[in-house]
Design brief:
This protein is of the alpha/beta class. The protein has 24 helices and nine strands.
């Protein structure tokens, strides 16, 4: 094979089974870089091996024994290169990483290189980046440990290897599958994990069992294992911090126990304050708890630490770095829900280069214009029902309270009312807008519509009294006062004022 490593001799190390969908692209990504392609097959029945043969690979068979480390260690034993890069079939080395990889394999030192493994899941709208040692100098004493979610770092450490953190990026597309396929993979891993855990339990295995139960939607079972994991004093600190993150999210989203959610999140922050996802959880907790100032604070911290982790050299062996566009969208969404203009403006323009869902893009544009008192095109104002979700409708009503372009505001409210026909906040805002525009008849009609749905709002009653009097609708005014006296009978102060007003009106009308 022609290669560009100039004889430094790199072995690609892989184990595969029924990977015809992914294998060719994986091998293409290292074409001309790896001098040796080692593939250990654990029982393929599809075209995997035929595809492998097209790439001048060395193929070996290994009987599957429900132990990923055993298979990987067999593959390691076949590698003759000075350096080893290990990949799964659903991973690809990115082209921008090639030069940096080559610079590492020129070294004669015992080094383990942490690479960024970017896992995209477009079907569920999530992406994360984790760092693992994927490149290391060959040594016959090196071996993987763990039946599933196998690790190489412990063995490298025992052999005196130095760890370095690189910008080498590996794209992992195996999670970007339908839920059924993802669940099948999780169930397979769970069976192996549970068996391994029953033999030699520890916090690391408990963490991965919990994470697998999360994928399968069995949250209650997951929590048991996260609670077990945090009791293990030997569990790597960032795994423990992520356990606390899961526990905090469970208390927040399932149990609605905000105090316990804050407790778990803060326990995680004590371990690693720079963990982006923990800061996101805290921003959500304080959002739902009504403390918008702290929610704002943790939004900024989540973004700050996420950005730092992308370039930080001294990073722990396990961390989740969130795709920037996703963390920004999360923060912008919190800004919308809290009508936080400053937070919105801090992050809205960071999404300029991101390809967004059309409805989400229009929603953000609408809020940008409203919050910053800018002109809203008729196309947006007249079509908000086509793109604005119910989740953000309440926020829009609040944002419109300070919107100074009244005519445009009226158009938006009228359009929104086609869908939200009996929304009291919307009806009140619409009536108030008519009033500001001097359209007393429409204001009266709209306040009356509100009154028909809720007769106990004293502000609405005051507006109705004032408008009926101004428009000289005295008979309707007297009917309204009589009605209000009955409604507010238990409140002596209000009924006394209403009776006095009725008496004064009757005197005027005589």
């Amino acid at each position: 094979m022609d290669n560009i490593t100039n004889g430094f001799y790199l072995s690609l190390c892989m184990i595969v089974k029924n990977e015809e969908k992914y294998l060719a692209d994986c091998l293409e990504s290292v074409k001309g870089i790896a001098d040796e392609l080692i593939i250990v097959d654990t029982g393929s029945t599809d075209l995997t091996l035929e595809i492998a043969k097209k790439y001048d690979t060395k193929i070996y068979n290994f009987k599957w024994i429900n132990d990923f480390s055993a298979a990987r260690n067999y593959a390691l034993s076949k590698c003759t290169g000075k350096w080893i890069l290990y990949l799964d079939a659903d991973e690809r080395l990115t082209s921008k990483s090639i030069n940096e990889l080559i610079s590492y394999i020129k070294s004669e030192n015992n080094i383990g290189v942490f690479c960024n493994v970017k896992s995209a899941d477009y079907q569920r709208g999530s992406t994360n980046i984790m760092r693992y040692v994927r490149l290391f100098r060959n040594n016959p004493n090196i071996c993987f440990e763990g039946a599933v979610h196998e690790q190489i770092e412990g063995s490298l450490k025992n052999e005196g290897y130095v760890f370095e953190f690189s910008n080498i990026e590996i794209e992992h597309i195996g999670y970007d599958v339908d839920s059924e396929t993802l669940n099948l993979k999780a169930e397979r891993n769970l069976e192996i994990l549970l068996d391994d855990y029953s033999k030699t339990p520890n916090g690391y295995k408990a963490f991965h069992i919990g994470s697998t139960y999360v994928i399968l939607g069995k949250i209650e079972k997951a929590i048991d294992y996260f609670l077990a994991a945090i009791k293990d004093e030997n569990l790597e600190k960032n795994h423990k911090a992520h356990c606390y993150r899961y526990l905090a999210a469970f208390e927040l989203n399932i149990k609605k126990n905000y105090d316990k959610a804050i407790f778990y999140a803060n326990e995680g922050i004590k371990i690693n304050e720079k963990q982006p996802l923990l800061n996101i959880i805290l921003s959500n907790i304080y959002l739902y708890n009504g403390d918008f100032e702290l929610s704002d604070k943790y939004c900024h911290l989540a973004y700050k630490y996420n950005s730092i982790l992308k370039r930080e050299a001294d990073l722990a062996s396990f961390e989740i770095i969130v795709e920037e566009s996703l963390i920004v969208q999360h923060i912008v969404n919190i800004a919308l829900l809290t009508i936080n203009k400053n937070l919105f403006n801090d992050f809205y323009y960071k999404l300029a280069e991101v390809k967004l869902d059309d409805n989400w893009e229009k929603t953000l544009l609408l809020f940008n214009l409203v919050l910053n008192n800018k002109i809203i095109p008729d196309e947006i104002a007249q079509n908000i029902n086509l793109f604005l979700s119910n989740e953000h409708f309440e926020s829009l009503l609040l944002a419109l309270q300070n919107y100074s372009l009244i005519e445009t505001k009226l158009k938006i409210l009228i359009k929104a009312k086609e869908i939200h026909t009996q929304h009291l906040g919307l009806i009140y805002s619409l009536a108030e807008t008519y009033l500001k525009l001097g359209n007393d008849n429409n204001a009266l009609e709209t306040f009356e519509e509100y009154y028909s749905l809720d007769k106990k709002n004293p502000i609405v009653i005051n507006n109705l009294i004032a408008l009926n009097y101004k428009l000289n609708k005295m008979s309707k005014l007297l009917e309204l006062i009589d009605d209000a006296i009955v409604v507010f009978e238990p409140d002596d102060e209000i009924t006394t004022k209403l009776i006095a007003l009725r008496t004064k009106l009757l005197t005027i009308l005589k």
